[in-house]
Amino acid sequence: MADEVLFTGTVDVSYGQICLTCGDPPGTQESFAGQVNGLCGSAVSGAMFLVTGINHGTVRLTVSVYPDAPPLSDDWEEIVEVSFTNVCATPALREWDEQRHLLRLAPGSYRVRYCARGMDQARDVESTYDGAVIDTYLLQLWPGPAGPDRIVRQTSSCAAYWHQANRQAEPPREQHEAETAQLADENETWMLGLFGGRSPNQRLRAVAEAGYSHTLNDIDVDLTFALAEADDRMLRKVAGWAALQALEFAELTELPELAPSVAAIRAGGRAVAPFDGTGSWAEALVSPIPETPVPPLFPVEPGPVASWGVPEEYSQAREWPAIQALLATGEDDALVAALTAVANAAMAFGGDQYQDFLSRLRQEFPELPGQP
Predict the structure, then answer these.
(1) What are residue 208's phi and psi, to 5 degrees?
(2) Residue (of 315, 323, 313, 311) closest to 287 by Cα position
(3) Secondary-structure percent of the chain, ordered helix, strand, coil, rounded to 5
(4) Which of 43, 52, 247, 300 has the most CB atoms within 10 Å of its CB?
């Protein structure tokens, strides 16, 4: 049983951080210097840097002091231990908005056990603004000499990620292997979800991991996989063809600023600067651009009007995705160029005509791998 409960209640979190400190909160690098765990950083005297699963929101936290090390509990999914040197009589539990909860804790050397539950669920939600609590934490302190930090229990992918991201010392080999395997499993689950349960080839996998926008997956995942098997020459042709189709449909091919890029693509090349994505193309586009509304590809159910007066079931303008398709031809990676150009061209054609566009693409390029 705890000798004394110093704090129990909810704490507002921003950027997934809470600090217990006698002064100004230290930075992440300082806090985790020389440590193997990435959840509780205590390398700076008088300070503890605590990581949470929720990025912005509310967590429940209890801080307790014990005369000796308390028994480990099965109630917690994550447990790490660190040493902490308290240098003041009333360290403050600090929220991001500078609100402080003063704790009465005698100065001295302590061992600390930081326990967590619900980190993966909170990480997946990322933000809560209604006071809902998803992840819960316990900070246990007892007098003890300084010693190395250690990871006692690690079960969530969120904790595995932060251990690898924040640590500044080599962990035991078994711990490193367990974290790596868990993160690899999570990444594979994410990949399968991204591609409709299908495993992508290495090239498509690399594009996904680089942060490519996966719009075409939702439009036509079969076409995504077909493009991923094509060579660069074919991909450049597809990107250029899709961009021209969208620009012609939007009646933008004769626009003075775009005409040189249109000519370059028709000659087998790419858009020219700044419409190859390398410059400030928005500033170069001085001609008035009409905004022709087209049905979105995936209409939403009628909903409430937002505070600024735009209904949630808004239509999109044809011209802007057509210009984005043109910009995509300048991408260095030919697969990214094709995927992005085709997705934006489909949006330019809109919900009533994009399927006809995709059918014409398949007719234009029957040699695409994986085509029926």
Answers:
(1) -65, -45
(2) 323
(3) 35, 20, 45
(4) 52
**Distance between CA atoms of 340 and 238, rounded to whole angstroms?**
11
Tell me the mean pLDDT in the region 305-323. Answer: 65
Angle at 224 between CA 221 and CA 226, to 5 degrees: 115
Nearest to 65 by CA among 102, 95, 37, 106: 106
Beta bridge mates, 114: 80, 139
Q: For the chain, which domains are there?
A: 4-184 (2.60.34.30), 211-364 (no CATH)
Per residue in 87-127, pLDDT (tens digit) is 999 999 988 666 789 999 999 999 999 999 999 999 989 88
CA angle, 88 then 109 then 151, to 5°: 120
Stated as kind and residue range, the H or E segment containing 153 is strand 150-153
3-state SS assignment for residue 95: coil
User: How far, in Å, CA of 95 to CA of 92, rounded?
Assistant: 9
Question: What's at 342, amino acid-wise?
Answer: V
Q: Report pLDDT for 305.
A: 43
d(C-alpha 165, C-alpha 188), whole Å: 19
